[in-house]
Write a structure and sequence with these properties.
The complex is a heterodimer of chains A (183) and B (430). Chain A has 183 residues and is of the alpha+beta class. Chain A contains four helices and five strands; from the N terminus they run E-H-E-H-E-H-E-H-E. The longest helix of chain A is centred in the last third of the chain and has 21 residues. The radius of gyration of chain B is 23 Å and the shape is globular. Chain B folds into two domains: 123 residues, TolB, N-terminal domain (Rossmann fold, 3-Layer(aba) Sandwich), CATH 3.40.50; 259 residues, 6 Propeller (Neuraminidase), CATH 2.120.10.30. Classes of the chains: A alpha+beta (183), B mainly beta (430). Strand 1 of chain A pairs parallel with strand 1 of chain B, so a sheet runs across the interface.
Chain lengths: 183, 430
């Protein structure tokens, strides 16, 4: 779901800085633009090898949203102080790697998260490590590096807010998103 | 793969530039004084002649500024009929008897052009002599700012340090799902929203000349560094490389930003021009290197790194060489920010599960822990090096707090509603 961002820019800073506050506004225009999506770098066309065995329709885009399909599962959880993708998540990562391999134009974003203990910027980097770990595994399983953008939300988008291990565990996670689905 | 900033200039957003009149000054952040300094200087501030009818009175603002510094004790200036406003009207024995060492008097006179002439004098009660006196011409909207300037003069005259009452602070306010990057006066008044978003905003950083803010916004579903002009409102994404872009900090000449990028695998520190462009890599480790901060003389960078196994604070030259570890107490030292005098830095230290604000002297390596909260973060020095502004939580709510560099003076800054976090203290006005 696209979120609509409203950027409110109030020009003309403090009253003290302007002899006449109203005149500071002269440069500002009232402008409304439809949301635009900027395309990423153009992707090379898929070669024949990548489309081998693509008759299996569990690899189509609708599979990404099918609750019965493992591709609709998007979250990989991590232990405390760890970036290791645990065995229980291998099937999930393998399925997404196959999807990327079979759909050479498909792009993915991996969002790393961290619990909220400590510095925001350090937690952003911890979340990044988790996103990178998932990306690395996907590459080992056949996806191309340029198909996957690994980013971090750090502690900024928590699933829960309690100061307890049950909650922290939920926030130590990497989420897979497909921008072409509006995610 | 790098996505040039030119392409990203057109945002996935609806951008509205509104013509909005400057709102009447209103307190958005309320400041409580929690602790005071030792040996406070007793000062009496007599209401200025003719300020009673003004839309904005000056002496209440001056008194509040001086009280908030923790360095002054207010002496009763009332009960005099008529209140003195010129030196020859001052009855020094009265003020000596009340315990004042200094007294402030002044006048306000409306001018034909609709502005006001404000005059004040700072008088030494013992010597019965003038210490300082100035006159200002101010419009109605400038009266509050004039009061802050007067408080700055008084503070500087009596302490030797520059006052910071005319400065501004930036911070992020969160209300439900709405995030607002705001700039307010140092006393919490006149908050203006610089950016409003449904996605998080973190790490605001003031340009050295106070005209621009760098910050990280998640509006593009990934962290991107923007620089926004506070005078025109125009903004530009200056770091939107493949992966995450964060932790902007300005070089002292205002021409470059150090940032953290993950485009080459892992969080590493780079330098970009303040208008964007190519990134020059500074750190070369396989660890997390983040939270860069330039020294006031532009020669050094402090940063956080876990290359030694746990997050600690390091220093390096601005070319990335001569990396050396600076913190050695405990297993978690992060978020370094230089004192404007260049001799110490503030940071966050974890002790037994609590995160507190500390200061380390660069020469002696001595550490002083200044706070006793549990989740203190984001420390930022006032431009006179006397106070540190930081974020903390009280009863589950995000608030800002300030503590003096000797730990004695304490304040709390709370918002009307929602959480406040990520404070950054702006520079001295030019």
């Amino acid at each position: 779901m696209k979120k609509i961002l409203i950027v409110t820019l109030i020009s003309g800073a403090l009253a003290a800085c302007a002899s006449d506050p109203a005149s500071e506004q002269d440069g500002a225009k009232v402008e409304e633009r439809k949301p635009t999506v900027v395309d990423r770098q153009p992707v090379k066309p898929a070669d024949d090898d990548a489309t081998k065995g693509l008759k299996d329709d569990s690899l189509s885009a609708s599979a990404l949203r099918d609750p019965k399909n493992i591709l609709s599962k998007r979250s990989v959880y991590f232990d405390y102080d760890s970036n290791v993708v645990k065995d229980e998540f291998r099937p999930l990562v393998t399925a997404h790697a196959r999807y990327l391999q079979q759909n050479a134009k498909a792009k993915m974003r991996i969002e790393g998260n961290a619990d909220d203990r400590g510095s925001r910027e350090y937690n952003l980097a911890l979340g990044q490590r988790r996103a990178d770990a998932v990306k690395q595994m996907l590459q080992l399983l056949g996806a191309r590096a340029d198909q996957i953008e690994a980013v971090s939300f750090g502690e900024e988008k928590p699933k829960c807010k309690d100061a307890a291990e049950a909650c922290w565990a939920q926030n130590r996670r990497g989420d897979i998103a497909y921008p072409s689905n509006g995610e | 793969m790098r996505i040039g900033w030119l392409q990203r200039f057109i945002q996935t957003a609806v951008i509205l530039l509104l013509l909005v009149p400057v709102p009447a000054a209103r307190a958005v952040l309320t400041i409580e004084i929690i602790g005071s300094g030792a040996n406070q200087f007793p000062i009496a501030i007599v209401p200025f002649r003719s300020e009673g009818g003004l839309p904005q009175q000056l002496t209440p603002v001056i008194s509040a500024d001086l009280a908030r510094s923790g360095v002054f004790r207010a002496i009763d200036a009332g009960g005099l009929n008529p209140p003195p406003s010129e030196p020859q009207e001052l009855n020094y024995p009265t003020f000596r008897a009340r315990g004042a060492d200094a007294v402030v008097i002044g006048t306000v006179a409306p001018q034909p052009d609709g502005r006001y002439e404000v005059r004040f004098r700072l008088m030494d009660v013992q010597k019965q002599a003038q210490l300082a006196g100035f006159a200002y011409t101010a419009s109605r909207e400038q009266l509050r700012h004039t009061a802050h300037k007067i408080a700055d003069v008084i503070y500087e005259k009596l302490t030797g340090d520059k006052g910071v009452f005319s400065t501004r602070i930036a911070y992020v306010a969160k209300n439900g799902k709405r995030f607002e990057l705001q700039v307010a006066d140092a006393d919490g008044y006149g908050a203006q929203t610089i950016l409003q978003s449904g996605e998080p905003i973190i790490s605001p950083s003031w340009s050295p000349d106070g005209t621009r803010l760098a910050y990280v916004s998640f509006e593009q579903k990934k962290p991107v560094v923007y620089v926004q002009s506070l005078t025109t409102g125009a903004r530009r994404a200056v770091a939107n490389f493949w992966g995450s872009n964060s932790a902007p900090t300005w070089s002292p000449d205002g021409r470059r930003l150090a940032v953290v990028l993950t485009k080459d695998g892992g969080s590493q520190i780079y330098v970009v021009g303040a208008d964007g462009g190519e990134a020059t890599r500074l750190t070369r480790s396989t660890a997390i290197d983040t939270e860069p901060n330039f020294s006031p003389d532009g020669q050094l960078l402090l940063f956080t790194s876990d290359r030694g196994g746990s997050p600690q604070i390091y220093g390096m030259s601005t070319s990335g060489s001569d990396v050396r570890r600076l913190t050695f107490e405990g297993t978690y030292n992060v978020s370094p920010r230089f004192n404007p005098d260049g001799k110490s830095f503030t940071f966050i230290q974890r002790n037994g599960g609590r995160f507190n604000v500390a200061v380390q002297d660069l020469a002696t390596r001595q550490v002083q822990v200044l706070t006793d909260g549990t989740v203190d973060e984001s420390p930022s020095f006032a431009p006179n090096g006397r106070m540190i502004l930081y974020a903390t939580e009280v009863r589950g709510r995000g608030i800002l707090s300030a503590v003096s560099s000797d730990g004695r003076v304490k304040q709390r800054l709370t918002a009307n509603a929602g959480d406040v976090r990520e404070p950054a203290w702006g520079p001295l006005p030019k």
